UniProtKB/TrEMBL annotation:
The lineage of its organism: Bacteria, Bacillati, Cyanobacteriota, Cyanophyceae, Oscillatoriophycideae. It is a multi-pass membrane protein. CDD domains: TM_PBP2 (cd06261). Residues 76-266 form the ABC transmembrane type-1 domain. Belongs to the binding-protein-dependent transport system permease family. It comes from Atelocyanobacterium thalassa (isolate ALOHA). PROSITE patterns: ABC_TM1. Pfam families: BPD_transp_1 (PF00528). This is ABC-type dipeptide/oligopeptide/nickel transport system, permease component.
Length: 282
């Protein structure tokens, strides 16, 4: 095993550990809240605003009196929900359309290529901001707004790979024995073109967290009562100039660590499991 691959595996394990940590927090933070370890993230009237980290509030309180620790930990729920839904939505649309377009070709292929290229030319955050205006706030609406920008990436990868292997002998053999286009697409082509998708999936998941944070910072994300890192950073920004650092530091670290974890997984997959990419980097 080369030193570069060994280092990549170590970084990938670190990314998996970070991601599993936040997944554990998202799953079990409601239980921690029930047993009293975490305060209700919507509770503010009983807290002193802008209180520095102390025994009663380990990460302090923000300008409204929210407990920063509970908002930071429970904010992982919103991030992971949007990440999961947005990437699933983009996969469900991008992968089948890429398969059909690459295999059938013709006018349908030209139309889908034009549509996807049009979407791809629009910056992802700008497209998400526009769609969030139209769809409104909420987990599902924001996930849809975020996912649209990722569809062309899955479409391009699947379409180009499908187009490159649809004339190979095993596909011609399947056609010769009378296999239907649907059978060829999902039995013979799908497993051969899907191997690059996990890399894009993890990198898009990392990007989705940043887009969600950007929407929350602009006030276009989730409802204000929902703990969400981007919104909390927006609320904390005016206090930063007065020396109140804890309201920005901890939500910012949480967002950064989750993005880094998912990015390390994506880079590790691309280096270890995709030989063509690994050979290019030698």
């Amino acid at each position: 095993m080369s030193p570069s691959i060994s280092t990549t595996k170590k970084l990938m394990r670190l990314g998996i550990a970070i991601t599993l940590f936040w997944l554990f927090i998202a799953l079990f933070s409601p239980l921690l809240q029930i047993i009293g370890v975490l305060q209700d993230p919507t509770e503010l009237l009983s807290n002193m605003p802008r209180e520095a980290p102390s025994i009663s509030h380990l990460l302090g309180t923000d300008i409204r009196g929210y407990d920063v620790l509970s908002r930071t930990l429970i904010g992982s729920q919103a991030a992971l929900k949007v990440v999961f839904l947005s990437t699933i939505f983009s996969l469900v649309i991008g992968v089948p359309s890429g398969l059909i377009s690459g295999y059938l070709g013709g006018k349908l292929d030209k139309f889908l290529m034009f549509l996807m290229d049009t979407i791809y030319t629009i910056p992802g955050l700008l497209l998400s901001v526009t769609l969030s205006f139209i769809l409104g706030k909420g987990i599902v609406n924001i996930a849809i707004a975020v996912s649209i920008a990722y569809v062309p990436q899955y479409y391009r990868i699947i379409r180009n790979h499908t187009n490159s292997i649809k004339n190979q002998l095993f596909i011609e053999a399947a056609q010769a024995i009378g296999a239907t286009p649907r059978t060829i697409l999902y039995r013979y082509l799908f497993l051969n073109v899907i191997q690059n998708v996990p890399v894009v999936f993890t990198l898009n998941a990392a990007d989705a967290i940043l887009v969600l944070g950007g929407l929350g910072f602009l006030g276009l994300g989730l409802p204000e009562e929902v703990a969400e890192w981007g919104h909390d950073l927006k609320e904390a920004l005016p206090s930063l100039s007065t020396g109140i650092w804890w309201t920005t530091l901890f939500p910012g670290l949480a967002m950064t660590s989750m993005v880094v974890g998912l990015s390390l997984i994506g880079e590790g997959i691309s280096e270890i499991f995709i030989p063509s990419l690994r050979n290019e980097n030698k």
